[in-house]
Design goal:
The chain is 37% helix and 22% strand. The protein is an alpha/beta fold. The structure holds glutamine.
Length: 538
């Protein structure tokens, strides 16, 4: 039977619960255990797929095609274990299952209630991920303790632990210990109050992870232990990291958090193997070969979380190439207003990420053109590939007004158009082409060289595609179709002949990149940027 760790958050949001949960998962994994992770989100959307990135940051896509919370990206990047549909449930998905069952008469005439029916459904969700071969399941509860909407989840985990017994489940509470500058003191009161709220619903945390800017002194540990009912060694300090989020597990390991967790769960404390992780950190923090500047030109630039996986994958590319990647975040509308030269001059690479809607599109096209005409390494992802196709059609093939029908349904040259299978779909939410699909790579291309394989699997999230009727015209002017679906129906990758590194893909490679296993396209893009830097002598 799997052991369970439940992670809750107190005082404020944005404490990095997902990162802490992922770090704990890594530590247990590095002691030889098989770990699975899960996030339960208290909002009413069935999944974040229909939410604006400004609302909820990036929508992360799993291999099995679920649109999920971006914390799942951290889970995969830290542990390398793919998440599945069962790794993310929301209040919306739980209620819709309950309501559907009620409509089908599945409750046999009973009054359907939050307790027990909704809480039962939540417990079922937790069990769904605890398969036979799993040693530890880590379940993170989104939101902050004290929110009305997280109550059913907290009640469900309370019941769950009661049912499996103390020896098989732990509660880990992540809290904030703020530093009040004027008083020159760390304050423990908010944490005490947050634990107080948990206690009123019957949960006493076993572990307290304290997010703080300043070191937690012995007196604070003692005070927190005493007032929060937590053993002193399980009051853990999680200070802001200096260089990278990937330092968090190492900081937690220094306090033997993993050892205590295993002991509490009655599991053998196997030898810890963090060697590869530490080596990776060293390369990340002190790269041998300097720095490259990469521009990311997008429409949701003002919120860092909107392109989370892209920024992470770029840093992985840097780990592979032993350079620090400095990201210049460029708002596509600014490129539109001020011109590409003003915003992009001096960069060693340009990346245009995915997106929806026409705001800023012309700015993205200007960025593509600037990279194409100046021989600057270019990487287009999803909408970024579609922009590359539109730009090339307009400016290299003379197809004036070429566009995607997403932005101009009446364009004279619909070089990007809706996929056939998407045309009949009217329902939003989970209806795009989602998840992993195979892509066949053409030999002799940069794409093939990067992967070193003929057939790869990559994750998708789109409705539009390169219009096959334009293939020949684009190819005639030097666009290379370097990756296609195995039936040759969909163009999945393009590149440009005669350009140092101009590659774009319809899929999202950023979702499969990890610090220990940087994605080959990000690795080669960053490598090309480094070459561009060196040959320009800057
Ligand atoms: N809006 C485009 C489409 O639906 C691109 C999607 C994306 O970049 N994820 O095809």
């Amino acid at each position: 039977m799997a052991k369970h760790i439940f992670v809750t958050g107190g005082v404020v949001s944005s404490l990095g619960k997902g990162l802490t949960a992922a770090s704990v998962a890594l530590l247990l994994q590095r002691r030889g255990y098989s770990v699975r992770m899960q996030k339960l989100d208290p909002y009413l959307n069935v999944d974040p797929g229909t939410m604006s990135p400004y609302q909820h940051g990036e929508v992360y896509v799993t291999a099995d095609g679920a649109e999920t919370d971006l914390d799942l990206g951290h889970y995969e990047r830290f542990t390398g274990i793919p998440c599945t549909r069962d790794s993310n449930y929301t209040t919306g998905s739980i209620y819709s299952a309950v309501i559907q069952r009620e409509r089908q008469g599945g409750y046999l005439g009973k009054t359907v209630q939050v307790i027990p029916h909704v809480t039962d459904e939540i417990k079922k969700a937790i069990r769904s991920i605890a398969k036979d071969d799993v040693d530890v399941v880590i379940t993170e509860i989104g939101g902050t303790v004290g929110d009305i909407e997280s109550l059913p989840f907290l009640e469900a985990i309370r019941q769950f632990r009661q049912e499996i017994g103390r020896a098989n489940g732990l509660f880990m509470h992540i809290t904030l210990v703020p530093y009040i500058r004027a008083a020159g003191e760390l304050k423990t009161k908010p944490s005490q109050q947050s634990v107080g709220i948990l206690r009123t619903i019957g949960i006493i945390p076993d572990v307290l992870v304290c997010r703080c800017e300043q070191p937690l002194g012995e007196e604070h540990r003692t005070k927190l232990a005493l007032f929060c009912n937590v053993d002193r060694e399980l009051v853990i300090e999680e200070r802001d990291v200096e260089h990278s989020i990937y330092e968090v597990p190492v900081d937690l390991a220094k306090q033997d958090l993993d050892v205590y967790l295993l002991e509490r769960l009655g599991m053998h404390v196997n030898r810890q193997d963090l060697g590869a992780w530490r080596k990776m950190l060293e390369r990340l923090i002190t790269p041998r070969l300097g720095e490259v500047d990469i521009a990311v030109v997008g429409k949701y630039i003002s919120l860092r979380d909107s392109y989370k996986s892209i920024y992470e994958a770029l840093s992985h590319g840097g780990i592979a190439g032993e350079v620090r990647v400095k990201v210049r975040m460029v708002e596509s509308e600014d490129v539109q207003k001020r011109g590409a030269e003003a915003l992009l001059s001096g960069v060693h690479g340009v990346l245009v990420p995915g997106g929806f809607g026409d705001r800023g599109i012309e700015g993205k096209l200007a960025a593509v053109r600037y990279a194409r005409e100046n021989g600057i390494p270019f990487f287009g992802i999803c909408l970024g590939m579609q922009c590359a196709v539109m730009e090339f059609a307009r400016n290299a093939c003379g197809l004036d007004g070429a566009n995607s029908t997403e932005f101009n349904p009446k364009t004279p040259h619909p070089v990007v158009c809706m996929m056939e299978e998407q045309k009949s779909i009217t329902r939003m939410g989970g209806t795009m082409r989602l998840g992993s699909y195979p892509c066949a790579l053409a030999e002799g291309t940069l794409s093939h060289r990067a992967y070193g394989e003929k057939l790869v699997q990559e994750r998708h999230r789109h409705r539009y595609e390169l219009n096959n009727e334009y293939r020949a015209r684009l190819q005639a002017k030097g666009l290379v179709l370097s990756g296609v679906s195995p039936d040759n129906e969909l163009v999945e990758m393009i590149e440009l002949a005669g350009h140092p590194w101009f590659v774009a893909c319809q899929f999202h490679p950023e979702f499969q990149s990890t610090p220990l296993n940087p994605h080959p396209l990000f690795r080669d893009f960053v490598g090309a940027a480094r070459e561009a830097r060196d040959s320009a002598g800057r």
